[in-house]
């Protein structure tokens, strides 16, 4: 008898006695009762479940299978259900309670009582006890009567999954046992430390559950009793029972092994483990090609922006191999719902360390690349000047930040198996969702460190890149507009070829960085939100799974997207068609250029003519083009061959130098 035990505790000097799940009817020996739900609401919900199940049947009769005659909570719930039915005969008039049976919260006794009840003319067994509902569902299944007699009440999702799938238990209700125990301990702690006094209206904070208020217990109006009400309960059916079992399992409140195969199939665990290996290797090879293409050519590796690209590609290779290609292999072998997990805590830490170093350098290195473009185009700094004065910082900042934060994560024990949204070891708390219990073995405050070490810098880098690309585009456009002032002639067209090229290349550059990150950040943010609000995350469970699979395809390809942005301009130059240009120069050194549908005359400004005499202009024109004043000549430029045919007449040394200068100029543009 719990009442006598509580009285004895108070007599022994334990003044603060907290009861939960079931109150003491007299209130004697009890300081406060922590109620999982409002019993009057539970009675109404039980009546509603019975009405919904029996509404499609001509038989509105049902029986109740309770725990024992002395179970105060069971009796209160049944009384509340009967009261709700009587208070609204118009709504519940079709329902008829035939019998209240008792299985004494024993599985065998409850099973036998359920078999006996099924011999009566009823369409439903309603069991407000977890033992009773599981026994009744098993009995209905064994007797083959699930089509005629349904079972409902209060039950544990993991125990009723197969019966909900079969339709034997179409719907049932329950509250969170985790939250109930959590609130009970916080209530006792607040009482013992003096943070809470038992009087109506007194409030206290219960950790992650928020604020609660003490009130008179309306279910015991004849005695002086107080309660703290936890809140509403949850209805379970086919739409949400699997999510409930999953979260119960990762929180340690339900069996895991019996459902692992089912959940690995539901959450695409095999695909999440295998797909990144393929896409990660594609990215690894693409990044390796960029490094090889730059370092094997003297003029290409002489450019600062190409050396920055080497830094980006090196770190992309690190993250592609250690994070995406290795995938689930380094994850500890006993990790639940991770296909292919065969590692240890040490291998998991190794993977998280190198993956973070590679992935966190990426946004800052892309910002460095944008800085090079701005300094070169907007501020007109030469490549040599940028290399001497700025480039060391453009490498040092990403490298020091990435590897410094990676090292900082080791003593903080941040590198742990991610949950099903991820497919490798990274910054995560362990066990999964352990922050909901206020106790983590590893990765304490992992969510905060994830934002501080990675996510915030991704957003800053993209904003910075967008601003830089806009500055470059505006600069090139202004130069073209200024050039138009010196352009004249019949059929003049104000072309914006360079500004268009810069705009398109800038868009490709931003997309190459941001597109794969959209999916990676989305998955990480949703995972972080799930740590705060499991109910919210479970409502979009299928969408989260689809996003996780898409992320496994797109995010590992970030190195490949950088490769595409790098090689596309070169590819476009090589595949462009040849053009024919007719150039005529007059005695003043002015040149008229004619193409199909286009003609322009270039006049040099007075400031330039001041330094160049007419004869020098004439000699310069003859020397550079071989065209005498007043003479018209046709010059053919074949971009596929990469040189002007006039250059063929000169020596091999001049030919090689012209090719190199043209390539360097195009790359700088």
Structure at a glance:
This protein is α/β, with parallel strands linked by helices and 669 residues long. Helices cover 55% and strands 12% of the residues.
- The low-pLDDT segments are 489-494, 531-536, 607-613, 623-654
Instruction: Give a short account of the largest sheet.
Output: 5 strands, mixed
Helix content: 55-70%
* Rg from Cα: 38 Å
Total helical segments = 24
What structural category do the secondary elements indicate? alpha/beta
Question: In words, what does this structure look like?
Answer:
It is a single chain. This protein is of the alpha/beta class and about 675 residues long. Helix content is about 55%, strand content about 10%. It has 24 helices and 18 strands. It has a 5-stranded mixed β-sheet with strand order 1-2-10-9-8, covered by helices on one side. It has a 5-stranded antiparallel β-sheet with strand order 14-17-16-15-18, with no helix packed on it. Helix 11 runs parallel beside helix 20 and helix 18 (about 495-530) crosses helix 20 (about 540-555). It is elongated, with a radius of gyration of 38 Å. Mean pLDDT is about 80; it is low at about 490-495, about 530-535, about 605-615 and about 625-655.
């Amino acid at each position: 008898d719990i009442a006598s035990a509580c009285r004895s505790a108070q007599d022994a000097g334990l003044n603060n006695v907290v009861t939960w799940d079931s109150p003491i009817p007299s209130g004697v020996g009890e300081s406060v009762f922590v109620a999982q739900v409002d019993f009057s609401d539970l009675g109404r919900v039980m009546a509603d479940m019975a009405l919904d199940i029996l509404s499609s049947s001509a038989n509105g009769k049902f029986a109740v299978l309770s725990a024992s005659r002395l179970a105060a909570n069971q009796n209160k719930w049944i009384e509340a259900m009967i009261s709700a039915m009587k208070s609204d005969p118009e709504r519940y008039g079709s329902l008829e309670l035939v019998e209240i049976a008792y299985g004494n919260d024993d599985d065998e006794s409850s099973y036998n009582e359920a078999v006996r009840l099924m011999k009566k003319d009823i369409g439903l067994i309603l069991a407000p006890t977890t033992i009773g509902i599981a026994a009744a569902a098993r009995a209905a299944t064994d007797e083959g009567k699930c089509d005629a007699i349904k079972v409902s009440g209060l039950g544990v999702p993991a125990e009723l999954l197969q019966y909900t799938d079969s339709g034997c238990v179409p719907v049932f209700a329950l509250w969170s046992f985790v939250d109930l125990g959590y609130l009970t301990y916080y209530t006792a702690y607040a009482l013992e430390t003096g943070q809470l006094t038992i009087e109506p209206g007194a409030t206290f904070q219960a950790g992650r559950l928020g604020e609660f208020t003490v009130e008179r217990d309306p279910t015991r109006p004849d005695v002086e009793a107080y309660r703290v009400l936890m809140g509403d309960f949850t209805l379970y059916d086919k739409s949400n029972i699997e999510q409930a079992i999953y979260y119960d399992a990762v929180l340690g409140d339900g069996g895991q092994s019996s459902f692992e195969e089912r959940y690995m199939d539901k959450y695409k665990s095999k695909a999440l483990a295998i797909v990144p290996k393929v896409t990660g290797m594609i990215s690894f090879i693409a990044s390796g090609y960029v490094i090889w293409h730059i370092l094997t050519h003297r003029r290409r590796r002489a450019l600062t922006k190409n050396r920055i690209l080497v830094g980006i590609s090196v770190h992309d290779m690190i993250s592609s191999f250690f994070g995406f290609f290795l995938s689930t292999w380094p994850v500890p072998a006993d990790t639940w719902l991770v296909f292919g997990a065969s590692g240890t805590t040490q291998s998991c830490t190794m993977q998280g360390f190198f993956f973070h170093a590679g992935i966190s350098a990426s946004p800052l290195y892309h910002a460095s690349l944008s800085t090079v473009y701005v300094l070169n185009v907007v501020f007109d700094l030469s490549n040599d000047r940028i290399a001497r004065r700025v480039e060391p910082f453009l490498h040092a900042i990403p490298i020091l930040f990435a590897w410094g934060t990676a090292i900082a994560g080791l003593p903080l024990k941040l590198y742990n198996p991610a949950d099903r949204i991820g497919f490798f070891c990274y910054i995560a708390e362990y066990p999964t969702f352990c922050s909901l219990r206020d106790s983590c073995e590893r990765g304490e405050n992992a969510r905060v460190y994830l934002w501080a070490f990675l996510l915030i810098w991704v957003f800053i880098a993209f904003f910075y890149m967008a601003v830089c690309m806009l500055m470059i585009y505006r600069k090139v456009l202004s130069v073209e507009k200024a050039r138009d002032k010196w352009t004249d002639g019949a059929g003049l067209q104000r072309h914006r070829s360079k500004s268009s090229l810069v705009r398109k290349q800038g868009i490709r550059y931003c997309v190459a960085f941001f597109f794969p990150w959209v999916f990676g950040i989305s998955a990480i943010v949703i995972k972080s939100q799930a740590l705060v609000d499991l109910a919210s995350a479970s409502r979009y469970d299928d969408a989260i799974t689809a996003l996780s699979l898409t992320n496994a395809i797109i995010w590992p390809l970030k190195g490949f997207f950088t490769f595409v942005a790098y090689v596309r301009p070169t590819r476009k130059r090589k595949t462009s068609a040849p053009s024919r240009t007719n150039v005529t120069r007059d005695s003043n050194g002015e040149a008229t250029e004619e193409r199909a549908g286009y003609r322009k005359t270039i006049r040099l400004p007075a400031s330039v003519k001041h330094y160049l005499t007419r004869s020098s202009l004439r000699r310069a024109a003859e020397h550079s083009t071989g065209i005498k004043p007043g003479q018209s000549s046709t010059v053919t430029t074949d971009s596929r061959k990469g040189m002007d045919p006039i250059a063929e007449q000169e020596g091999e040394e001049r030919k090689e130098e012209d090719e190199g200068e043209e390539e360097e100029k195009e790359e700088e543009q």
